[in-house]
Amino acid sequence: MDLQMLTDALKTLEQGAMNQLKQVQNEAELEQWRVAYLGKKSAVSTLSRQVGSLGDSERPLAGERINKTRQALQEALATAKGTLEESLLLRRLETQRVDITLPGRRHPRGAIHPISRIIHEIEEVFLGMGYTIAEGPEVELDAFNFEKLNIPKDHPARDMQDTFYLTDNLLMRTHTSPMQVRTMEKMAGASPVKVIVPGRVYRRDEDDATHSHAFHQIEGLAVDKGIRMSDLKGTLEEFAVAVFGPQQAVRLRPSFFPFTEPSAEVDLRCIACGGSGCRMCKETGWIEILGAGMVHPHVLDGVGYDSRIFSGFAFGMGVERIALLKYGIEDIRMLYQNDLRLLEQFERIF
Ligand code: DAH
Prior knowledge:
By secondary structure, this protein is of the alpha+beta class. It has helices at 3-23, 27-38, 43-50, 59-95, 114-128, 142-145, 178-187, 229-244, 297-302, 319-327, 340-343, and strands at 132-133, 139-141, 165-167, 170-172, 193-202, 214-224, 250-257, 260-269, 286-295, 311-318. It is built from eleven helices and ten strands.
């Protein structure tokens, strides 16, 4: 072997390698190529071992050419590697493409239940008028639920509010009115009282479109020197306008409750017809929404407020009734069924 033969062999080798490299499709094949043309057992290595057999004058030139070939192959390898990686990346981008036009995943939001919502709304109205909010026990003493509200044991008014008794003297409260007594006893006849009491109450009623054995009330109580029935009416008017709109009006009709004197049923001008008469208000133009009155002297004196000095008004409204009217729901039972089709219509308010 001489320099010319070596040069020719290198040339053929390089051409062959370059052609081969064009066929390479993936990294495994590229590695095979590297081992074949640049590895220890490659033709280039074999040739370089034969340089020693050449003459002194030819040896440096032979070494130089071998290095040049090796360098050319290494450069070609690096370029091919880059191209291969790039095309693999392109293919991955193509196959794993994210379709940004797909609709997003929905994260459903909770909503405030219409009963809680109307309670919060009514609380806001009365907070704005300087009332505080109190809550009382749902399991109540007969004394607070009835007797101190001027409803003695054999009083016929008890029949209207039959409930679930735990013992002779302990029952599920039939209304939020016992909190009138609890609040006034705590104040011990000293300072004026202005409080509203939202809460759950119980009755021995058959459930139907307008009745539930468990429902909610909001009690209101204002006691001070010189409180008059006109204060009651003004307060309820303010409430009606805030909850049902500026055109609202209320009407007081004489009624009876043992713990108020005088007592009244309070009507709201019909929100469906505006007062002209329709099916909803049974052609009367008015809808009953709550009971109210001036706190009975027996009740005041019984809790330590001297009825010759103090006077007050009280009212009690059914929360469900207000919610049904305000949200146009027809059956009270819908408020307890947790049907998402109803509940989803109420957005969060906080
Ligand atoms: N507690 C009565 C009921 O549940 C409603 C009521 C009437 C409350 C008159 C009052 C009131 O505070 O003054 O039927």
